[in-house]
Amino acid sequence: MVMEITQCQPGHTPFCKKTCSVKHCELIVCLVTCPDNKRMIKGLASLKQSLFQALQEGWNPHANVVDPLIEFQTPLIHWATVLGKDFALEWLIKMNFRTNAVCDRTGESAVHRMLKCLYSIKQLDGMSAREIFTLFSHLLSLLMGSCPDLLTIQDNEGNTPFHTCAKLIISQEGTTSELEYFENCMVTMLRSLTGDKSSAKSSDTSSVLNYKNNNSETILHILARRNASFNIMRYVIRRFNHVLDKNCLNKEGKSAFDIAINSQTYSVAKELGSTDDQGADHSATSFSVDLHIGEWDPSFGRPTKIQTSRPRQRSKKPHTRSESKSTQSRNERIVCEETNEVETLEVDSSASSTSSTTACMASGVGDGNKQTSSSPELIFHQDSDSPSSRHSPSGTDQKMDVNIAGMISVNLTNVVAIDTEDLSVNRVNQDVIGSPGGGDGSEQLEFDQHSLAYISHQVRQRSETRRKSTGSKERSERIGVTTASLRSSAETRKASDPQFQSVSPSCQHGGNNACYCRTCSPLMKLIKEEDDVVTLLEARLKDKRQKLETYLLDYTKQMREVEKKGSRCCLLLSEYKDERDAIIEEDQLKERERRKLLQRLEELEKSRIEPNKRLKFLDAKILELESLSEQSLKTIEIRNEHCSEVKRKLTEYDSALSEIACQNESVASTKRIKVEPLDE
């Protein structure tokens, strides 16, 4: 029985009506006036005094309180939990009050009553759903501390607190804070039962979740009736799938899956029909909510549709040359950040075997004011006879991959990056001229200028061709510089420029010349300092990564908010659809009944035709007979008058005859008298 909750008046409880004139038990009144969450010495003084007086009168502290209203006759522990008096409850537990005391009338425990009434009472006090849930968790921990088996108690209807909470969940209309509150209460009770989040295989959990009430229904049967229970059903199944008996039948011989199908809660039926035993550890990652006792999550159970993951970061360990050997076959890639295009510029190392220098220009190194986020970074091979390969015993290519900010891989010795959009040969030349190093700068600079100009021309030409092309397929085509073109250009420069052949014989033949730094390009010396290049690239890419991470976090938050709204809208939409379908089904049923009634009415109308005809015939006969009877009555009256006249005449005739007879007798007697003497 759910009692109506109203504003509390002095001397009354929140369950009392405004017109209540009953004098309630003093213990209940003192509990109502106890302070909330304030450990005041004077707060429990009146309660202690009333309790001492009741004990002196012989009241059993583990029995129901004595109150004129039968609905209020529950144990004092129940009143403390229902009213949310945690300080009073803690004191009562210290006074050895039994937390597992049940109501004699309903068989409910304190948790049953707290689930039914705590939210409504505290909502009147202006508490939010989160605050009420925190209070519920605290009260439950106090009760469970002295009685761990409190959640296994069944009332007179066979319902455990889980059954009661499940019924309260399916009784909610739409996605509300009250629904989220009861969902979190269910999760808190489950975790209070298991004790540890990972200990989901306890026998207590298995038995309690499979408890049946008087209708032989488990919590799955109850939750399967409404779509509002989808989130908690999903949580229970995924976390306790190994102990749940989903094939359990109720008194009607139906399983939870059958009830879900009959109730048209197909999302719940899908969860019940799943056979994947994920376990507690897997559900913690697959399910979007993993609450702790005493915590609140207003977005409980809302499934995440969009997942974002950060790029995998490699550990920034110092690379050795032995580690770089394993990366020789790795493909070099060009990452266009804004267009998300990946382009590869592959150059055979044999094509540049005669060159001793390779350009390495990171966008933004020379001019920090220019933005190069939209320009591609070109990556190509370096000569195997470069100075960096001299440390290898075999003289082969040595590659070193550096993972910068977890985004791209840069091969520092054999791969260099040049920003084609911001490439400025003059600026590069100035940087090269001003760079430290020995040797003939004019000779080497002329070759570097020709090499960079040729490569830049090839890249720009192909970039312009790519920009002019339309469609995403043409934009994503790879730009390749063929081996033959570079080889022919290198041979042409060899033949035309005699200085080119005498630049660095040690670099051409791969020998270990100790003074190769004098003859190699100053640009090569700049490239040789790998730490400086890594620092510049790392700083630039870290800045970009930080900006992208900030944008990603903001976008993820926005998407999560949109997901929450979308999930709530989907839930409301499903409920509205269910309600609409129910109304349509009811309307169709009434329409069928109406048609049956109309058909019956037509049949009755047809059946009335013959009786109506007979009725008209009988009415005509009755009228005819009535007219005949009237005529007969008139005839009878006339004849009666005639008869009376005849009778009157007969009477007159009789009187006349009697007179005549009298006269005749007198004459006869006279004649006899006269005759007798004669005879004598």
Tell me about this structure:
This protein is mainly alpha-helical. The chain has a domain at 26-193 and 207-273: Ankyrin repeat-containing domain (Serine Threonine Protein Phosphatase 5, Tetratricopeptide repeat), CATH 1.25.40.20. The protein contains 24 helices and six strands. The protein has helices spanning 26-32, 45-56, 76-82, 86-94, 110-124, 129-146, 161-170, 177-194, 203-209, 219-223, 230-240, 256-262, 266-273, 279-286, 321-324, 425-433, 441-468, 472-475, 483-496, 498-501, 505-509, 516-519, 522-528, 530-679; strands spanning 334-336, 341-343, 377-380, 401-404, 408-411, 416-419. The strands form three sheets. It has a two-stranded antiparallel ribbon. Helix 16 runs antiparallel to helix 17. It is elongated, with a radius of gyration of 54 Å. The relative contact order is 0.05.
How many helices in DSSP terms?
Answer: 24
Outline type: elongated
Report the span from N to C terminus: 134 Å
Mean pLDDT: 68
CATH structural fold name of the domain at 26-193 and 207-273: Serine Threonine Protein Phosphatase 5, Tetratricopeptide repeat
Biased composition (Low complexity): 349-363, 385-394
Region (Disordered): 296-399, 458-509
Biased composition (Polar residues): 498-509
Keywords: ANK repeat, Coiled coil, Repeat
